[in-house]
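Batch 3, record 17
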Amino acid sequence: MNVDKSILNRSYLAMLPFFLMALLILFKLFMIQYVEGPELRAEAENEVVREINIKADRGNIYSSDGKLLATSMPVYDLYMDPVTVDEEDFFTELPGLSKALARKFPERSTAQWENYIRSKRKEGSRYVKLAQDISYTELQNVRQFPIFNLGRFKGGLIYEQKNYRKMPLGKIAERTIGYDRLNAQTGIEGAFSSFLSGTDGLRLKQKVSNGNWKPLSDHYEIEPRDGLDVITTINTRMQDVVHHELLRALERFEADHGCAVVMEVETGAIRAIANLGRTEQGTYFEKRNYAVWEDTEPGSTFKLASVMIALEDGVADTNTLVDTENGIFSIYEKKVKDSNYRNGKGGYGKVSVKRAFEVSSNVGIVKLIYNNYQKNPNKFIDRLYNIGIHKKLDLPIKGEGTPEIPKPGDPYWSGISLPWIAFGYQVSFTPLQILSLYNAIANDGKMVKPRFVEEIRQHGRTVEDNPVKVINPAICSKETLAKLQDLLKGVVEQGTATNIQSDLVSMAGKTGTCQLNYWKQNTYDYQASFAGYFPADNPKYSCIVVINKPNYHQGYYGSTVAAPVFKAIAENIYLDTPREWQPEKQNGNPLSLSAKKQLTDLSAVKAIPDLTGMDGSEVVPALENLGYKLKIEGVGKVQWQYPPAGSKVSTNRVIELKMG
Amino acid sequence: MLTYIKGDKTLWVIAIILALFSMMPVYSASSNIAFMYGSGNTFSMLAKHAVHLSLGLILMYAAHNMNYRHFGAISVILMPVALLLLVYTLFQGHTVSNATRWIRIPFLGWTFQTSAFASVVLMIYISRYLAKTPSEKIRSFKQSFAALLLPIFAVCGLILPSNFSTAALIFAISMLVLFIGGYPIKNLLYIAGGGIAALGLFIVLTLAFPNMSNRVSTWKARIENYNSGDKADNYQVHKAKMAIAEGQIIGKGPGKSVQKNFLPQSNSDFIYAVIVEEFGLIGGVLVIFFYVLFMIRILIIATKSPTKFGTLVAIGTGLGIIVQAFVNLGVAVNLLPVTGQTLPLISAGGSSIWMTCVAIGIILSVSRGIPEESDEEANVEPVNTFAHA
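Prediction for the assembled complex:
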């Protein structure tokens, strides 16, 4: 050793603190791990891990014929952070961006967009609204705009995804399909929400720098279970017919609102349901689900129940004579009048029960019931209860109106209650409840519950069936049933609804004309209805049409307002698609070969031929098949067209036709 | 190949193990930095670190190949160069972490921390002076002032404005080397007093002219944070503690650190916390063990070195690495206030790795000068190839 021993001793002395330091570090390491550890770990977990809700996809709603009625699709709200954009990029590219925005979102012009974004940047706003509810393809397009194409961080484009419920077939049966919102659930969407919504999943995410989160593991903690598909009973073709026929009648009679429902006799499946209410502008839209919700006095359609009870109790037969007198009958100073009472000079005289029913004689039916049950009104009321129409149908769709049938002893029961109930007043039912009664007549006395949903499916597999539910297996005896069916047929054949006789399909049913607010003076509010089924023998479908408050001057009788809708629906539905045209029966000329060719050529030359004089029923489908949107007024032959013949038209152009 | 590698084998192994191990935590900890500031390519960060290490190992090899006796002369030449570089850094420096500690190397574009270079040069310079100068002269405060003490004060004084902790550490190590080298304790106390007085003057000046340097306020904040333990202000330390607690015994596994995302200096100042989080107490204890082993090897080399210069050079340069390592570990486990010292050989960063490697190379060179036979007591005739040459 050449080195001085003292140097080495001093070296060891100098190094000693570092050994102690190493020990201290070790000690501290274990302290952090074991003493402070649990608290620190809990804090770390709390801070860096969070649960992310994974939204389950909502199920679709299909029609019974397999068409998509409601589905979910993502839409996006667009915002911009103009502050994050580089100053140079911002000022050189802003004109380009504004131009592109103005083209895409024309609510602002190029200059307005530029000023808007520029001022927002100046304000320091980092969340400037650009557009909302745009589709994914539109979003992809917007991302290519100047500035935005710089990327997510430099470009400042912010987009937020939302789920939007879309009805691909438009607003048809909108009210019945309904919606499912946080505090409002309506229609099938609301009723079957538990199936449709599925269960959300859960995923743990870990915080990484810059406020971003990454999935903690490859799998979801809870796998989201997508909602199930609901297959409704709606048939889109029938729905289309019902919707448009109802709409046409409402427009023609300027009614306040109306509904029309088609039900399959055997299964109770609602094949079509349209509910239209009038806006202030006189247009109609699916305002409320009148068929389910609105309970009103049914009027003459309820005479079916009265006659059924009389026949069932054997107090009368169809050929029993009733004296309708001069069409007016007083009870407790209240008057029951027939529609033809003509100040006491009208009436039908002595007629059979069948005839009284066919002509809808109020006096006849009231006297039939009043004379036989006035001593024991309970017997009649009990009978009504026995049918099962006193209870709600217990529909899945919320908001069903409650049927009302007063009983002797009720506070509202009076001497005129029984006679008034006999012809459909002082009781109250929804259109669907009345339809169920008529459907039971068509269905050999078996009353079934109206069904809106065929089944619940998952990936095309049936998960849950919705079988037919019988409310009452036999509402009356077979004999009574046969008589009632005969009566309903008679209404169309020789009663109040002869105007709807059709060569195409036989129908049976009952008109109803009910005065609304009759306790007030000089009211002209009526409810016109028609309930029945078709074909009259071996019925397939039952149908009810209720039109509320038609313009008094245009007509208000069930036979003139509601029954033709029923007829149109029956004819359209009964004639299976493709519809067989019988040109000789049509008003217009059969489409000439040259016109046909012209229409076919329309797609090629894009010039519209002269359509005047052609039959609308031929022109319309031909044009629609070519992809044109049509605006049509009236029926029959084309009287007027716009654009005029020879004009070049592109397929997104609306063609207006007036027919008559 | 092995015949070209001379010197203390254990030190070689420790250096290489630490260097190779460093790839894992650096790669892991860089992911966040690559994501936030870089192109998002973590591999480029790994490649950069690998290049730094390779260059460092080459420098280490080159340094160990030189006869350590030449370092003394070289340090005399490099001392003014180091001082000039420090002056240049102070006024022209490239700002990193709000402190002017770096210069950019022309053409290469790399940043270089001049204080690390100056530290190594200073240690050799002090060692040379203490070894060469007669002890009577050393004992005299006046006589040793110009050649010995002035460079120490100059280096520390030039580093102080930008990096207090490094200046203080270099000053402390210098004091230790002086102490080991037999400098009178009385004089050491004078110097220490002088150093503290200089520091006080600097602080007063800075507070009087705040535009001159913002460092004092940073130190103030750091010391306050350490004392108060306030969670919001002491963000880094708290995250480091969380990382250590999360590691438990065996750790989360390489690359699985979570807290690296929130530790601003995850691949340098706080890499030890990331190591413990990923490799657990086992990894953490092993790292301490390797530095302790490193320290023991330096003592052994110093003990065995046949010359006073060799002993002092080994201790001086070795202390530079050890002090830095333990200060870094101490900060990570919240034993010391945040200083900004890197973990030698493990933390990412070019110049700190290179200067660490050069320092180890110098120690290896000293170990090369140890007569191999000295291990064996039985050897009667010591053959010393270097001594008294």
